[in-house]
Structure formats: C-alpha cells, structure tokens
Write a structure and sequence with these properties.
Blueprint lengths: L3 E6 L14 H17 L4 E6 L26 E5 L10 H7 L4 E7 L1 H14 L3 E10 L8 H14 L7 E4 L9
Parallel strand pairs: 1-2, 1-4, 2-3, 4-5, 5-6
Helix pairs in contact: 3-4
C-alpha cells in the first residue's frame, strides 16, 4: 500500500456553538489549506463527524454539520462515529484499505479526546501518522489551557513507539501529501 489521506476530525458547528478556542480562526485557516493541498495532490480527504442521538450532534442536525468555512467536496468522504475512536464501529479502516492508504495526516477537534484516540487507533491499525501539530485544537479546561493540552499531545503522541509506525508532529506548512 502507498499513499496518504487527510483526516479532519469533528469540526462541527455544535462543538463550537457556545465558544471558540482561542486559536480557532488560525486552525480553521490551516485546515482549509490542508484540504486544498490534499485535493491538489489528488489525495483523499475524509471528514469524521461525531454523532449522538437526541443531542446537539444528532445526525444531520444543524450542530452535526461542518463548521462554516469547511465544506465536504463531492469527492471527499464522510465517516460517522459515536465514540472518540474514528475506527471503532465505523468503515474508516475499510475506506482506507480500498484506497491503499498507509499514512494519515490527522487534524481537527478535540486534541485530548478524538484526535488523541484516533491517532492511537490509527497507529494500532498500522498507519503512519503526521499529526498536524498546529491544526488540532480544543477548549481551555480548568486544569490546563488549550495550548498546553495541544503541546502535551504533540509531545506524548510523538513519543509512542510501541505500535511500530511513526507518529510525527508536523506543522501544516510541512505536510506533504504522498501518493
């Protein structure tokens, strides 16, 4: 297998309805650039959307939709999930296998939940990972600021070697889509 794909996780209106992370505008701009770069390189773009019935993230509700500024193009893929793991009980692995993907470029929301869990699961599935260090985000928490949470996950995920595949934190400017 060879080739990379862009995975954008949980950039949904309902998750940002109450307040935006401090770096939201910059992250959104970088995600738009990554989306465009993946298309120019003719590499798959996969939007992962979390859903929960009877909530702001109910399937196809206003809150479930992608944030303004991100749009699923006709050739983009959409994966629906119900847990922080984008692989668990979804068809993501099969979609990647069908397209001969062996490397994921991962970005989105939330650094400490769905991004972290998906990176670990992707590594467990054997995918090399470029974690776009400046293109995943979260909200401030009582114990840590969002910037500290992102920095922590960039450092700790890069240190995980037991899966046998690289997990590299890279800036959006450093991303190269291989195919």
């Amino acid at each position: 297998m060879s080739g990379s794909a862009l995975l954008i996780i949980d950039m949904q209106q309902g998750l940002f309805a109450d307040r935006l992370p401090d770096d939201y505008a910059a992250v959104l701009q970088r995600l738009q650039g990554l989306h465009e770069a993946a298309h120019q390189a003719k590499r798959p773009v996969i939007f992962v959307c979390h859903e929960a019935p009877d909530s702001m993230l109910a399937y196809q509700s206003a809150g479930w939709q992608l944030v303004e500024g991100l749009q699923c193009a006709a050739d983009d893929l959409l994966v629906r999930k119900t847990t922080p793991d984008s692989f668990l009980r979804t068809d993501l692995h099969q979609l990647l296998q069908q397209r001969q993907i062996n490397k994921l470029v991962i970005a989105g929301y939330a650094s400490e939940f769905c991004v972290d869990t998906t990176v670990r699961s992707a590594a467990a599935h054997g995918y090399a990972i470029d974690l776009v260090a400046d293109s995943h985000t979260t909200h401030d928490k009582p114990h840590l600021a969002a910037a500290q949470i992102r920095a922590h996950h960039n450092a700790t995920l890069a240190a995980v070697r037991s899966f046998g595949v690289p997990i590299r934190p890279v800036s959006a400017a450093e991303v190269v889509f291989a195919g």
